[in-house]
């Protein structure tokens, strides 16, 4: 098709096939709409292909590898010799996982009548979009559109990744060899997750963070155990430190650092990984032609239904303000699809859980103690340590704790947070409890199976009420 030909008409065009985009497209298909899903690369977006899934595959492999040295105390003795990790073998495993999931998304789109178009899309107006598909240019006329173009890594010019010595997270997950020394610029969740994984695989890791602590957007008391374990792994953490320059050469990279505490110093590494942050992909999709407004940072402003300032155009996921989380994007996509169908759907819940896959894991939902106090609540908070949980001891995962944050007057649960093994799965109970406006008594009266890690919630709730069984209660 060439420019000027009659446009193909469809009910909805979805731009971007990540977790939000494909969820929206599938839900629209279920609701009987004709849908065109435009994706320039593989379905699943950054999360499935270059982010969430590959990184968790690496983190899992690193955890399994690190456990080998501690098996003797469990009575397991490996054959003599030093265990080895082969990055090339892991790459094959990662690709098999990604391929299976991407293929599954494609099949689900097909089964729900979604037309997938591989190409780069940009608005021509508020009811037309043009798509570059290799050698061709196709035009689609739509009644509604959903923008789900996601985000990309941010790096200042002097830290621009070259794919060889200076890496972004995608480059790091494509390495064929574990670097002997790795400098990570940015101690947020991506930097700490990947840093701890590579440390377990044998890298000498240095994390450089400009803020006064790593994971600065997470409650300080929730981060302490992660820092402790990172240092046990031999990681060097330099906080309150900025990178002034980076030199990349044949022998690796050299970083010039500056801080108030240490002054100026230079560190060297084989690779430097930049994990400073991400930017929304809104600059090259023709928003001006569509009349869609963005804020000063390039994010699209939306209401609880996902509508932009143009009533027929919606935006979801990382292009909107708020946490850049795949599960948030997927929920937004479903809401937008249902609103288009005339259903009373809204993104009206404040309970979006977060998970950080460090060692130990951190997960939470709702308010922290500090946030609740700042909002004027009279707070009662209680914790229960993993080391007092039978299952945690049995599987040698005794580091961490569960915390409940409670309104002292009403006993309403305000927040639930876990630091420890499998916190990523445990937090689902917290999300449900807060969604149902549960009181701490509801949690304490719920019988939890034994022996399981889930009992930490039961005991934390009982501790808040002053009658935990497996720890001494505070008077």
TrEMBL record:
Family, similarity comment: Belongs to the class-I pyridine nucleotide-disulfide oxidoreductase family.
Enzyme class, broadest EC rank: oxidoreductase
Note: The active site is a redox-active disulfide bond.
Required cofactor(s): FAD
Organism name: Brevibacillus brevis (Bacillus brevis)
Note describing how the cofactor binds: Binds 1 FAD per subunit.
FAD/NAD(P)-binding domain: residues covered: 11-333
Every Pyridine nucleotide-disulphide oxidoreductase dimerisation domain range: 352-460
Reaction catalysed by this enzyme: N(6)-[(R)-dihydrolipoyl]-L-lysyl-[protein] + NAD(+) = N(6)-[(R)-lipoyl]-L-lysyl-[protein] + NADH + H(+)
PANTHER family on file: DIHYDROLIPOYL DEHYDROGENASE, DISULFIDE OXIDOREDUCTASE
Name this polypeptide is given: Dihydrolipoyl dehydrogenase
Annotated GO MF terms: dihydrolipoyl dehydrogenase (NADH) activity
Enzyme Commission number: 1.8.1.4
A Pfam family recorded for this sequence: Pyr_redox_dim
Signal peptide: none
The entry's keywords: Disulfide bond, FAD, Flavoprotein, NAD, Oxidoreductase, Redox-active center
SUPFAM superfamilies documented for this protein: FAD/NAD(P)-binding domain (SSF51905), FAD/NAD-linked reductases, dimerisation (C-terminal) domain (SSF55424)
NCBIfam families the record matches: lipoamide_DH
């Amino acid at each position: 098709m060439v420019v000027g030909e009659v446009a193909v008409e469809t009910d909805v065009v979805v731009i971007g096939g990540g977790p939000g985009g494909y969820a929206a497209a599938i839900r629209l298909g279920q609701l009987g709409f004709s849908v065109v899903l435009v994706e320039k690369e593989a379905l699943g977006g950054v999360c499935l292909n270059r982010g969430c899934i590959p990184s968790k595959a690496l983190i899992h492999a690193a955890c399994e590898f690190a456990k080998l040295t501690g098996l003797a105390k469990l009575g397991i003795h490996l054959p003599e010799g030093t265990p080895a990790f082969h990055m090339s073998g892991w790459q094959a495993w990662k690709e098999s996982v990604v391929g299976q999931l991407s293929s599954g998304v494609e099949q689900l789109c097909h089964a729900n009548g979604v037309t997938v178009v591989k190409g780069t899309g940009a608005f021509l107006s508020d009811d037309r979009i043009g798509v570059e598909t290799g050698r061709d240019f196709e035009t689609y006329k739509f009644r509604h559109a959903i923008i789900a173009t996601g985000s990309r890594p941010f790096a200042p010019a002097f830290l621009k990744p070259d794919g060889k010595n200076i890496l972004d997270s995608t480059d790091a997950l494509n390495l064929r060899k574990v670097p002997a020394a790795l400098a990570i610029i940015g101690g947020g969740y991506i930097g700490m997750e990947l840093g701890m994984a590579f440390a377990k695989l044998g890298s000498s890791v240095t994390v450089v963070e400009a803020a006064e602590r790593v994971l600065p957007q997470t409650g300080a008391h929730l981060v302490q155990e992660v820092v402790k374990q990172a240092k046990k792994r031999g990681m060097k953490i330099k906080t309150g430190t900025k990178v002034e320059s980076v030199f990349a050469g044949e022998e690796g990279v050299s970083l010039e650092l500056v801080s108030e505490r240490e002054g100026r110093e230079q560190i060297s590494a084989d690779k430097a990984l930049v994990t400073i942050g991400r930017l929304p992909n809104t600059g090259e999709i023709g928003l001006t032609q569509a009349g869609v407004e963005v804020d000063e940072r390039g994010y699209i402003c939306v209401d609880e239904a996902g509508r932009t300032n143009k009533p027929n155009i919606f935006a979801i996921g990382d292009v909107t303000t708020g946490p850049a989380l795949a599960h948030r994007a997927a929920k937004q996509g479903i809401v937008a699809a249902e609103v288009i169908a005339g259903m009373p759907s809204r993104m009206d819940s404040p309970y979006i859980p977060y998970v950080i896959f460090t060692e130990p894991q951190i997960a939470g939902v709702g308010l922290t103690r500090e946030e609740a106090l700042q909002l004027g609540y009279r707070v009662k908070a209680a914790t229960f340590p993993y080391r007092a949980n039978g299952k945690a001891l049995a599987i040698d995962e005794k580091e961490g704790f569960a915390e409940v944050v409670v309104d002292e007057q009403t006993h309403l649960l305000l927040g639930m947070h876990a630091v420890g093994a499998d916190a990523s799965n445990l937090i689902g109970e917290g999300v449900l409890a807060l969604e149902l406006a549960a009181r701490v008594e509801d949690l304490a009266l719920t019988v939890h199976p034994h022996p399981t890690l889930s009992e930490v919630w039961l005991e934390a709730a009982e501790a808040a009420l002053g009658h935990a069984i497996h720890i001494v209660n505070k008077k």
